[in-house]
Amino acid sequence: MPAGMEPTRLYLKTSTGGYRRLLWFHNHRPNEMLMGTYSLTGGPAILGHEFPEYELDESELASVRYDHGQAVTVGQPVDHVTCHADGRIHVKTRTEARYVHAVQHVEPLGPNTGTFLRFIVITDLVQKYSSISGPPKSPYAWIQGDEQQLWLMQGAFSGKNYHLEADIAATIQHLAGDQAVIQPAVQLVSGTLKGLVWGQPRVVPAEMLNNRPAGTIVSFKFPAAHSRWIIKTFIFQ
Fold first, then answer.
1. How far is CA 114 from CA 31, 53, 79, 136, 222, in A?
2. For residues 225 and 207, what is the distance between their CA atoms, to the nearest angstrom?
3. Element at 141 (helix H, strand E)
4. What phi and psi, each to the nearest 5 degrees, are found at residue 68?
5. Nearest 5 degrees, angle CA 108-CA 122-CA 214?
6. C-alpha–C-alpha distance, residues 14 and 7, integer Å
7. Could you report how far apart the first and last alpha carbons of the chain are, in Å?
8. What is the DSSP letter of 130?
9. pLDDT digits (tens, 9 = 90+) for 102-146
10. CA pair distance 104, 223, nearest whole angstrom
């Protein structure tokens, strides 16, 4: 994730060797991080739906559950999520270049900043994502799974000097204790910021997907004051 250079793309790699676009990350400027999703067709994403916002204590984060019936239709083209150096965090649309869903981090971003963003990604079925033609663009990373599976992924970002690995070790160990198949974490490092992304495949009965809108579910968790977190969850199509 080198600052000022090409974004790092994260692909789903199938058993046949094909690559499918999923996410991208970019340390656009010093102390600033961008994150974006691709649509199922491989192009820029549409913010299809959003869930109600939550503000919770850290101890309550694992208990959050989402009812697809609560998802509100949005239908806005979206460009990316920006974590600015001054601590502002925005979801930026491509319609009139407007920023929406702004929150304020408790401190400016820099190499010594603690975890300033956590996120959960629940993919659609791998087979629904568009395959690329030719080799992936560098820099890139990938996770491999069956086309009939979906992926549950988690990630976190912090300053380069912060011990992020220790911050998320307990979460990874908990998942491994459930005998889940977890691929090694993907590490993203830049001049001032770093991140870790890890995940596991899930086999989901078809009937469980009937009421779910198509697309990639992304739940962002931003730290607020007094050990509380703001949770904003979207479905990108």
1. 13, 23, 26, 32, 12
2. 40
3. strand 140-144
4. -60, -25
5. 120
6. 22
7. 25
8. P
9. 666 667 888 998 888 889 999 999 999 999 988 998 889 888 878
10. 9
Cβ(222)–Cβ(103) below 8 Å = yes
Q: What are phi and psi of 50, to 5 degrees?
A: -135, 150
Contacts of 155 (CB under 8 A, 6+ apart): 118, 119, 121, 195, 196, 197, 198
Task: Count CB neighbours of 82 within 10 A.
Answer: 19
- How far is residue 51 from each of residues 54, 154, 160, 193, 236, measured CA to CA in Å? 9, 18, 31, 29, 12
Distance CA 187, CA 82 (A): 19
pLDDT digits (tens, 9 = 90+) for 176-213: 555 455 566 788 877 788 888 888 887 777 667 777 88
Per the CB < 8 A criterion, the answer to whether 53 and 70 are in contact is no
List the structure tokens of 139.
């820099």
Phi, psi of 233 (to 5 degrees): -125, 135
Average pLDDT over residues 79-101: 73
CA-CA-CA-CA torsion sign (66, 70, 74, 75): positive
For residue 122 the two structure tokens come to 């629940």
The tokens of 32 are what? 């600033």
Instruction: Report CA-CA distances (Å) from 53 to 117, 201, 222, 236.
Output: 16, 27, 11, 16
